[in-house]
Structures are given as structure tokens and as C-alpha cells.
Amino acid sequence: MRAVVTGAAGFVGTHLVAALRERGWDVVGTDRRPGADHRADLVDADLDPLVGGADVVLHLAGRASARASWREDFDGYLHDNVRATQRLLHACHAARVGRVVLASSSSVYGGAAPLPTPEDAPTAPVSPYGATKVMAEGLAAAYGAQGLDVVVLRYFTVYGPGQRPDMLLARAIDAALHGDELLVFGDGRQTRDFTFVGDAVEATIAAGTRGPAGRTYNVGGGAPVAVRDVLGRVAALCGGTLTTAGAAAHAADVRDTAADVSRARGALGFVARTTLDDGLAAQVAARRAALAAPSADRR
Ligand SMILES: NC(=O)c1ccc[n+]([C@@H]2O[C@H](COP(=O)([O-])OP(=O)(O)OC[C@H]3O[C@@H](n4cnc5c(N)ncnc54)[C@H](O)[C@@H]3O)[C@@H](O)[C@H]2O)c1
């Protein structure tokens, strides 16, 4: 299989490229940041030679972080999540790529969806980020109507080694290891359906190779946990206490997330295999190792 992975230097993309290469796939990873085989911004790059001849394009490039989307330049979110997606889908359609997988987000649902949330729940995002992911899904539908097979994955809070530093668990682990205070939005009773990155990667590979055309799937760990419970586990794994400072719930945050993964289980054979305890232990161990390395990024 020949695959192109966009966002290949990012958190999930790094794991995905490694997993595909382990299986012997011919992979080209592309990203705007250093760390991928091919370095370019999807909005400016000549995409025809990049996607030409690919069996599958796994589109993970995007601007993540729902909270930052309230304060950062919205044009950046449009650029990375909407314009980049439109250009990529256009090139894939022209090149007759067999399948595109689009990394979307549980953020498309907003806070009013039933729990656990099935894929046919209405989209009602509560952040500009979530709104751009809805737009990206709309583009997938538009190109789908023209015959391009685009499968959409809605990831639920992915965690594990190399997690983006702005995400809760990465911040919590660093705070616990350094004895710093962690800012926590909300009362800590809000729940999240944490998904280990290895499981998200397996779902992504399955979505690229199995199941009917043009479907949308939730990808969730399947065992939602309260934020304060997960922080307690982080503190225990880091061998100490975690001091937290509370802040009001953030406008970008929904109260609870829980994925109904029955569709992905049935069509893709997706089963989340990594327990939260095992996944957290792996993330803490990886962070300890990174901090012990000579060129450690300590913060
Ligand atoms: N991590 C999660 O919990 C989560 C949850 C839901 C959805 N997602 C989505 O999954 C994808 C991967 O998430 P991640 O956590 O690995 O994020 P990440 O920020 O670590 O990786 C995204 C990568 O995309 C690249 N990129 C962004 N815009 C680009 C452009 N215009 N051209 C070229 N490269 C570009 C970035 O440089 C970055 O390396 C994103 O689309 C994100 O929105 C992630």
C-alpha cells in the first residue's frame, strides 16, 4: 500500500507513520513542521505530485486545540482546517486516490448530544475549532458527492507518548514531575472519553483499508473518566502530588464526552485495547525519558 500522511510531524501523525512503516507500507509523511519526509504547507504546495499514485491519503494535518481557537487568529484555523482540507481533497479527487481519511473531532458535537454519542447526533460545536472541523466534514461530503471516497474519523481526546503539550494530560504530567501548579478548567467532575494514541492509530489504519465508502466513525477509548480522577492517577504515577488551581469552565469545553463506537466496531473491527492506566503509564514513562535526554525540552 502507498500512503500519504498529512500532519506527519504531529502527535498522532508521528505514531501513524511509524505503525504503517512497521507493516511495510510505502509512506510519504508531509507536514509544515520539520520532522516529516516532505515539508510544505498544504495551502501553498503543489499537491498533485504528492498524492498522485497514492492508494490512501490519511489527512491528519490541522490546527488543533479548541480553547486556543477562541483567542488565536481564526484565519489560522480556517487556513489549516478548511482551506488545506479543500485543496487536499481537490488534488485527491483529480488524482483518483482510492480513499481519503479525514481526522475530525468529537468537538463537532458540542454539549447537547446524547451520551454515549452516536455519529448521527446533530453537529453543534461550541468552539471556532469545532466549527472548522464541521466545515472540513462538509467539504468531505461535497467531494464525496463527486465520487471521492472520504471516510471521516471523529477522535475523542487522544493521549499517549508525545501528546501535544497544550493538552491536559501532558500539562498534568509536566506539572506533577516538576512540582508546578496545574490550571484546571471546570470543577473536575467533567468526563472525557480518553483514547490511547495506539488505538487511534489502529482505527485510522482500519478506516484507510476497510469498511464502506464515505462513512463517519467515532474513535473513542470507550471508558469515560472524570478529569479529577485521571489527575489523581497522573499524580500517583508521577510519584507524588499534583497541585491544581481551579478556573471557571472554559467556553470551548463541553461537560462530558463519550463515544458510541458501535459503528466503528462493526465496520472496522475497532476495539480500544489500551486501558487508561496502561496508557497513562506509557505517557509518563515517555515523558520521563524525554526529560532525561540531554537536549530535553523541560517545559
Ligand atoms: N489529539 C487529539 O486529541 C485530537 C482530537 C480530535 C481531533 N484531532 C485531530 O487530529 C489531527 C491530529 O491531531 P494532533 O493532536 O496530532 O495535532 P498536532 O498539532 O500534533 O499535529 C497536526 C500537524 O498538522 C500540521 N499542519 C497543520 N496545518 C498544516 C498545513 N496547513 N500544512 C501542513 N501541515 C499542517 C502541523 O504542523 C502539525 O504537525 C488534527 O487534525 C486534530 O484536529 C486530534
Spell out the blueprint of helices and strands.
Blueprint: E1 2-6, H1 11-22, E2 26-31, E3 38-39, H2 48-51, E4 56-59, H3 74-94, E5 99-105, H4 128-145, E6 150-155, E7 158-159, H5 168-178, E8 181-185, E9 191-192, E10 195-196, H6 197-209, E11 216-219, E12 225-226, H7 227-237, E13 243-247, H8 262-268, H9 276-292
Parallel strand pairs: 1-2, 1-4, 2-3, 4-5, 5-6, 6-11, 7-10, 8-13
Antiparallel strand pairs: 9-12
Helix pairs in contact: 1-6, 3-4, 5-7, 5-9, 7-9
The structure holds nicotinamide-adenine-dinucleotide.
Briefly say what this structure is.
This protein is of the alpha/beta class. Helices cover 38% and strands 17% of the residues.
Mean pLDDT comes to 96
Q: Which molecules are bound besides the chains? A: nicotinamide-adenine-dinucleotide
- CATH classification, class level: Alpha Beta
Please give the domain count.
Answer: 1
Based on secondary structure, the structural category is: alpha/beta
- C-alpha-based Rg, rounded: 19 Å
Shape: globular
Going by CATH, the architecture would be 3-Layer(aba) Sandwich
- Strands across the major sheet, in which order? 3-2-1-4-5-6-11
Kindly describe this structure.
The chain has 299 residues and is α/β, with parallel strands linked by helices. It has one domain (2-292): 3-Layer(aba) Sandwich (Rossmann fold). The chain is built from nine helices and 13 strands. The chain has helices at residues 11-22, 48-51, 74-94, 128-145, 168-178, 197-209, 227-237, 262-268, 276-292, and strands at residues 2-6, 26-31, 38-39, 56-59, 99-105, 150-155, 158-159, 181-185, 191-192, 195-196, 216-219, 225-226, 243-247. α4 (128-145) links the parallel β5 and β6. α3 (74-94) runs parallel beside α4 (128-145). The longest helix is centred in the N-terminal third of the chain and has 21 residues, at 74-94. The N and C termini lie far apart (38 Å). The mean pLDDT is 96. It binds nicotinamide-adenine-dinucleotide.
